[in-house]
Amino acid sequence: MTTIVEFDGASRGNPGPAGIGYRVLPDGDGVEGHEYIGKATNNEAEYTALIRGLESALEKGYSEVIAEGDSQLVVRQVRGQYNVGADNLIPLYKEARTLVEEFDEFEIRHVKRSKNEGADDLANEALDER
């Protein structure tokens, strides 16, 4: 079964208060989530959103995932196109890659911010609720 995982992180300040949002969008019932994660950089929030979305897809039993996010850095690092040099991102990158290995098929795509509004709205909702 294939699903799309949309993910986004938001930080008000860099670092600053941060929130995440994700949507798991299969054919049928979807799952949404948002969470305030405390003080973090925008890139830490983006990775955390991806991780939570992938965890949710696994919990729902999906074996094939297409992840979509508007962070070129995260997308290119997870694809292996960019090295992960920032010490604060290395553990998050490793956690994301470990989750990726759980799927039979995985693809990650960069999308324009306008195509990621659902996850973006959820990340900002998490910040507004804190």
What does this structure look like?
By secondary structure, the chain is an alpha/beta fold. The protein has one domain (2-129): 2-Layer Sandwich (Nucleotidyltransferase, domain 5), CATH 3.30.420.10. Helices cover 38% and strands 32% of the residues. It has helices spanning 42-59, 72-79, 90-100, 117-129; strands at 2-11, 16-25, 31-40, 64-69, 105-110. A 5-stranded mixed sheet has the order 3-2-1-4-5. Strand 1 (2-11) and strand 2 form a beta hairpin. Helix 1 (42-59) packs parallel to helix 3 (90-100). The longest helix has 18 residues, at 42-59. The N and C termini lie far apart (35 Å). The mean pLDDT is 96.
Question: Descriptors for this entry?
Answer:
130 residues, alpha/beta, Nucleotidyltransferase, domain 5, 5-stranded mixed sheet, 4 helices
In short:
About 40% of the residues lie in helices and about 30% in strands.
Task: Please outline the helices and strands.
Blueprint lengths: L1 E10 L4 E10 L5 E10 L1 H18 L4 E6 L2 H8 L10 H11 L4 E6 L6 H13 L1
Parallel strand pairs: 1-4, 4-5
Antiparallel strand pairs: 1-2, 2-3
In CATH, what is the class?
Answer: Alpha Beta
Helix-strand pattern, N to C?
EEEHEHHEH
Number of helices, counting only DSSP H or I runs of 4 residues or more: 4
* Average of per-residue pLDDT values: 96
Q: Would you count the extended β strands for me?
A: 5
CATH architecture: 2-Layer Sandwich
How far is the N terminus from the C terminus? 35 Å
Instruction: Say what oligomer this is.
Output: single chain
Number of domains: 1
Strand order of the largest sheet: 3-2-1-4-5
Q: Do you know the CATH topology?
A: Nucleotidyltransferase, domain 5
Class inferred from helices and paired strands: alpha/beta
- Tell me the major beta sheet: 5 strands, mixed
Stretches where pLDDT is under 50 for at least 5 consecutive residues are none
CATH homolog superfamily: Ribonuclease H-like superfamily/Ribonuclease H
Q: Roughly what percent helix?
A: 25-40%
Shape: globular
Rg = 13 Å
Q: How much beta, percentage-wise?
A: 25-35%
